[in-house]
């Protein structure tokens, strides 16, 4: 049967290779990897390719995805601060969740008691990025409440940076996490075996050997699938950045001016655009659009093709300089960034193919 377009093609061998490379790199520094599966909607062929590399823990932000892992023997972590309304499912489908609210932890406790389980939690600490986590000054008082809650085991501290505020992890902010761990272990006479030092933005510190001693877990999504650390956007050494390729089909190809004719109002998304006059250019329309992708995150594999823009379901390319003979029906290939991958994997209009 012929392929359907648009599609994402995943090279599973490259995914396994990336996971293996990153796992070895982290293990050398005594850091464990929780493989984050949300960006590809926890598609099982990809999850399996990562587990094949020797990863022992998977992490996702949505219960719906964790449910798919029920039969897997690896550890499962819930990444997003749980909703009180999903407390019993959190306990049922994850071994560990990241938390920042006492009321929620109490709900998890009740659910765990009901299921006769102990639920592990990592307390999230906000080190300045201003997404989730208790402020550093409130960590000790929060821990004093958590340790009294039944069926809940506090196994560590965690943080998340470079997500909302764009704060880059460094030895100073991650060092604070280690200081807090030591203070809590002493003050409460308990062990905090897990220090979860962030996401793919923390990986550069493993690469350049500056990650503070004591950080022993990273939660990695993008680094594994796109082979990129996300503090500086560099390719991870010896990793593939093209394990995921987006392909689309040309439905129109015509030479047209670069500046629209008529009075310019807003586009379909409420933006007023300006147009650089490059004269008459050969334009190709690919059948994919903003409902399926983040246009800004596309990079044509052919350097002679560039992106003019897109509406909901039309992507407009400048193919004037393309040396290949493109016609209606030709397939164009793109590398994609995190936002684009997230959208494409989530879109039901984009077909997914897995190559071994
Ligand atoms: C999404 C997420 C991650 C993974 O982020 P990447 O940049 O893909 O590595 C890690 N931790 C939390 C809490 C997340 O929500």
TrEMBL record:
Coiled coil: none annotated. Residues 10-225 form the Alanine racemase N-terminal domain. Pfam families: Ala_racemase_N (PF01168). This is Alanine/ornithine racemase family PLP-dependent enzyme. CDD domains: PLPDE_III_AR_like_1. It comes from Clostridium frigoris. InterPro entries: Ala_racemase (IPR000821), Ala_racemase_N (IPR001608).
């Amino acid at each position: 049967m012929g392929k359907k377009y648009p599609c994402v093609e995943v090279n599973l061998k490259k995914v396994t290779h990336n996971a293996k490379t990153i796992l070895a790199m982290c293990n050398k520094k005594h850091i464990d990897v929780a493989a984050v599966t949300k960006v590809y909607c926890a598609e099982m062929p990809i999850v399996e390719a990562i587990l094949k590399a020797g990863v022992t823990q998977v992490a996702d932000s949505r219960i719906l995805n964790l449910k798919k892992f029920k039969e897997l023997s690896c550890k499962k972590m819930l990444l997003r601060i749980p909703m009180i309304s999903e407390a019993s499912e959190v306990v049922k489908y994850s071994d560990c969740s990241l938390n920042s609210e006492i009321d929620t932890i109490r709900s998890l406790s009740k659910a765990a008691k009901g299921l006769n389980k102990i639920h592990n939690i990592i307390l999230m600490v906000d080190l300045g990025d201003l997404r989730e986590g208790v402020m550093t000054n409130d960590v000790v008082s929060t821990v004093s409440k958590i340790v009294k809650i039944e069926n809940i085991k506090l196994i560590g501290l965690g943080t998340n940076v470079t997500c909302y505020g764009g704060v880059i992890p460094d030895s100073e902010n991650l060092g604070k996490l280690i200081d807090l761990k030591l203070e809590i272990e002493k003050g409460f006479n308990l062990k905090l075996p897990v220090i979860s030092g962030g996401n793919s933005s923390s990986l550069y510190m493993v690469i350049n050997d500056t990650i503070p001693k004591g950080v022993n877990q990273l939660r990695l999504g993008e680094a594994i699938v796109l082979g990129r650390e996300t503090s500086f956007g560099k390719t991870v050494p010896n990793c593939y950045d093209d394990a995921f390729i987006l392909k689309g089909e040309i439905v129109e190809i015509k030479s047209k001016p670069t500046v629209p004719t008529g009075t310019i109002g807003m586009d379909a998304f409420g933006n007023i655009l300006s147009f650089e006059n490059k004269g008459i250019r050969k334009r190709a329309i690919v059948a994919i659009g903003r409902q399926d992708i983040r246009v800004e995150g596309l990079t044509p594999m052919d350097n002679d093709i560039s992106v003019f823009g897109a509406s909901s379901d039309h992507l407009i390319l400048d193919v004037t300089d393309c040396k290949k003979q493109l016609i209606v029906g030709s397939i164009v290939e793109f590398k994609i960034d995190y936002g684009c991958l997230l959208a494409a994997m989530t879109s039901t209009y984009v077909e997914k193919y897995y190559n071994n």
